[in-house]
Amino acid sequence: MGAINLVTEVPGPRSREIVARREAAMTRGIGKLTPIAVERAEGSLVTDVDGNTYIDFAGGIGMLAVGHNYPPLVDAVKDQLDKLVHMCAIVGSYEPLVVVSELLNEVTPGDHPKKTALLNSGAEAVEAAVKIARAHTKRQGIIVFEGAYHGRTNMTMSMTSKYKLFKSGFGPFASEVYRLPFPNPYRRPQGSTEAEFIEWSIWNLEHAMVAQIDPEAIAAIVIEPVQGEGGFIPTPAPFLQRIRELCYEHGIVMIADEIQCGFGRTGKLFASEHYNLVPDLITTGKSMAGGTPLAAVTGRADIMDAPHPGGLGGTYSGSPLACVAAIESINAIRQPQFLARANEVGHAIRTVCEGLQARYGMIGDVRGLGAMIAVEFVTNQVSKTPDAPTVQALTAETLQRGLITIRAGLYSNCVRFLPPLNISDEHLEEGLDVFEASIQAVAARSMPQAGD
Ligand code: PMP
Q1: How far is the CA of 59 from the centre of ligand 1 (A)?
Q2: For 235-291, how does the pLDDT look when each residue is reduced to its tens digit (9 = 90+)?
C-alpha cells in the first residue's frame, strides 16, 4: 500500500465547508490553487480535514526543502516559544537574529566581508535590496527581465513580469524599472541556434544600455539565476556572465534573486554556484526558514551598510520564532548529503518526465537544474503553442489521485516540481507514478473521439 490514502471524494465534505467559508470571509484576490482544507502535514505528506492523505509536490511553493514540520525545526520553535516570541530587532537584539545573519554571511557565494538584512517575505527582501542598491549607488534605474517574478508589493510588482495575473488593475507602477527580454532557449526565434540566440540576447542587453538607460543611471540589475514563476528556466551562463561583467564595469549592483532557486533546490546551496557567480547582493526566502516567514538580503558589507540607520526593516523583521526555524533549516540543507539527495530527486523527476516527453506530444520541454524541474505543455511540439488548459486539467487530475501539483510559467502552461528535497524514494516514486497516470488520463480525454 502506498502513502496516498483517499477516504472521501476530493474535496471531501469538511474541506468543502471550510473552503466555502474561506470564500465568504476572504478576498478572492488571494488565489486558491486547490479546493482542499488541510489539517496537518509531515515530511512530504499532507492530510486534509476529511482524513485524506496526499503526497505534496508543491511544498508550500518551494518553501519546504526540509519537508513539512521538520522535527528539529518544530522542537526549536517550541523551545523558543517558551523563551521569547517577539522583541522587535529595532528595539533589542537576541542571539538567533545574529546567528541567522552570521550563517547567511557564511554560506552565500563569495568570501568577501558580508552583512545581512532580515525581512518577512521575499517581496520585502527584493524591495529592501533595491533600496540598498539605490542608497549605495545614488542612482535610480533598476533592470529586470521578461518572465521575472519578484513579488506583489508595488515596487516588486513593477519588477514582476506576467501582467495579467500579477498586475492588471493595480497600476500605476513604480518608475525607473526597465525590462529587457530574457533568453529562454526553448522559445527562441525559429531558425536561430541556441548559441546565436544567446549572442543576440547579449547584444540586446548591451544595446539597452544605449537605447533605454545609460549604465551610469543604473542602480541594480536584478535577475533570478533560474527563473521560478517564469517556468524554471536556467539563465544561459554567458548571459549571466555578461551581466556580471557589465555590473563590475559600471559600478552597478548585481542582485541575484534566489528566493525560489536558492537553498538546495538546484542541488547546490545556491543556483549562483552552478555559474561560479558571485552577486553583490543575494535575496533569499522560502526554504531558508522551512515554512516560517523569513527572508533576507545578504551581500557586500559596504553596500549593505549604505542605508541610514532606521531605513530598513520593520516590526516583525527577524522574528525569533522564524530565526530559530531558519537556523535548523539552513544547517540541514547545507549538508553535502542533503544536497546529494536533492540531485537524486532531480534526476528521478527528470528521467520520468523525459520519458513522458518522448511519448506525449503535449510535452514541449522538460528543463531545470538539480531538483528544480518543470514540464512545459504545448498544443504540439512543433508550433510550441502554450497549452494552459491542459495544465489546469492535469493539476486537477493529480489532486483527484492524491498528488498536489502546481503550475508555473509566463503562459501558466508548466507544471513545476517542488517536493521536499529529503522526500523518500517510496513517496517520490509513488508521486511520479500518479503524475504519469494523470497525464495518461488527461491525454486520453483530449484525444479526438470518433464522430468529433
Ligand atoms: N522572488 C522570487 C524569485 C520568488 O519566487 C518569489 C515568490 N514566489 C518572490 C520573490 C516573492 O516572495 P514572497 O512571496 O515571499 O513575497
Answers
A1: 14
A2: 999 999 999 999 999 999 999 999 999 999 999 999 999 999 999 999 999 999 999
Alpha-carbon distances, residue 135 vs 76, 140, 220, 298, 394 (angstroms): 36, 9, 11, 15, 46
Is residue 285 lining ligand 1, measured as CB closer than 6 Å? Answer: yes
Substitution candidate for ligand 1 out of 158, 265, 281, 286 with most atoms within 8 A of CB: 286
> Do residues 391 and 364 touch, judged by C-beta distance below 8 A?
no
The residue to which cell 516514486 is assigned: 429
User: Is 59's C-beta closer than 6 angstroms to any atom of ligand 1?
Assistant: no
The CA distance from 239 to 277, in Å, is 12
Say which residue the cell 476530493 belongs to: 10
Let me know: does 50 contact 39? Beta carbons within 8 Å. no
Q: pTM of the predicted model, to two decimals? A: 0.98
Q: Which three cell numbers stand for residue 100?
A: 541567522
- Using a 6 Å cutoff on CB, does residue 183 contact ligand 1? no
90: its cell numbers: 529595532
Q: How far is Cα 430 from Cα 20, in angstroms, rounded to an integer?
A: 31
